[in-house]
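Please fill in the sequence for the structure shown.

STRUCTURE ENCODING:
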């Protein structure tokens, strides 16, 4: 009888899990654990997005890291809209991919202390979570193909800012480039370049989307980056066999960019406005008809440069 009671008691003891003796609180869901780690690191947050530990080390920048819980509740996911890989973000936190499902069994503050992850973070460009909080107002959207668009914003004092949005796999427009680089994007209004080539028309190459949009009745294109990063190989491929007239910004950066463009497009001609002018300024100053005349003269000129 005693043996039977002992056996029953042993069986019940095996079925009841014993509470582990520990002073640590229970480990939260992986997404909560990650966000608590970022908080303990001193990371700033704006809306749903955090400063990214993989790249947000110096200078003012926008928040870009989003953390969420998987639909099946079996872990967390994260995405940096500035293009950092999941591996890079986890490495910056001292974590492995498996930790997205099973985070370390230590409280986030203690983990940050053990890994010495606490540090000073740079300021945010738009602390309120949206450029509008910094006084910026929408000016225009510039589509780059069907899946990316650049928004141009401007303050009353004339200073400007840009932000990108992209279409995700579900067809939703979300902030950022979703891992793409500006250099990977097509030219602005690239479909019109093909139309111009087929019709034997001249294509104007300028530095900004706003200049392209201002040149009514003219085929015009540009690239996603600024004067400091023209994608020369892409431009050479896309504009091969096309009559191109470059209308640069007439400043030091624009003229330096012009020299690089002419190296990649040796048959291109140049129409140069007055100092300080860009293509839009030139177009507004001389008017549509005169601009068309200047463009035709530049395209037919023997030398590469034509000034107005």
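FILLED IN BY: designer on duty
SEQUENCE:
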């Amino acid at each position: 009888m005693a043996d039977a009671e002992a056996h029953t008691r042993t069986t019940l003891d095996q079925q009841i899990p014993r509470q582990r003796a520990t002073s640590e609180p229970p480990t939260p869901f992986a997404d909560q654990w990650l966000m608590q780690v970022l908080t303990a690191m001193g990371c700033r947050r704006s809306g749903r997005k955090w400063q990214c530990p993989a790249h947000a080390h110096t200078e003012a920048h926008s928040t870009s890291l989003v953390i969420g819980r998987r639909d099946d509740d079996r872990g967390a996911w994260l995405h940096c809209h500035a293009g950092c890989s999941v591996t890079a973000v986890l490495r910056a936190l001292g974590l492995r991919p498996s930790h997205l499902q099973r985070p370390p069994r230590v409280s986030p503050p203690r983990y940050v202390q053990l890994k010495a992850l606490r540090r000073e973070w740079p300021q945010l460009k738009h602390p309120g979570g949206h450029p509008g909080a910094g006084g910026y107002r929408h000016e225009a959207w510039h589509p780059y193909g069907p899946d990316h668009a650049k928004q141009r914003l401007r303050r009353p004092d004339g200073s400007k800012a840009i932000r990108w949005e992209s279409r995700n796999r579900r067809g939703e427009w979300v902030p950022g480039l979703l891992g793409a680089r500006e250099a990977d994007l097509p030219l602005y209004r690239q479909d019109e370049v093909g139309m111009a080539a087929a019709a034997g028309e001249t294509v104007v190459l300028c530095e900004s989307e706003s200049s392209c949009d201002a040149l009514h009745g003219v085929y015009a294109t540009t690239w996603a980056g600024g004067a400091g990063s023209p994608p020369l190989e892409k431009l050479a491929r896309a504009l091969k066999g096309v009559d191109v007239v470059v209308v640069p910004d007439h400043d030091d950066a624009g003229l330096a960019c012009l020299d690089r463009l002419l190296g990649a497009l040796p048959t291109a001609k140049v129409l140069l406005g007055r100092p300080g002018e860009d293509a839009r300024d030139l177009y507004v100053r001389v008017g549509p008809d005169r601009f068309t005349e200047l463009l035709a003269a530049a395209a037919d000129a023997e030398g590469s440069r034509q000034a107005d």
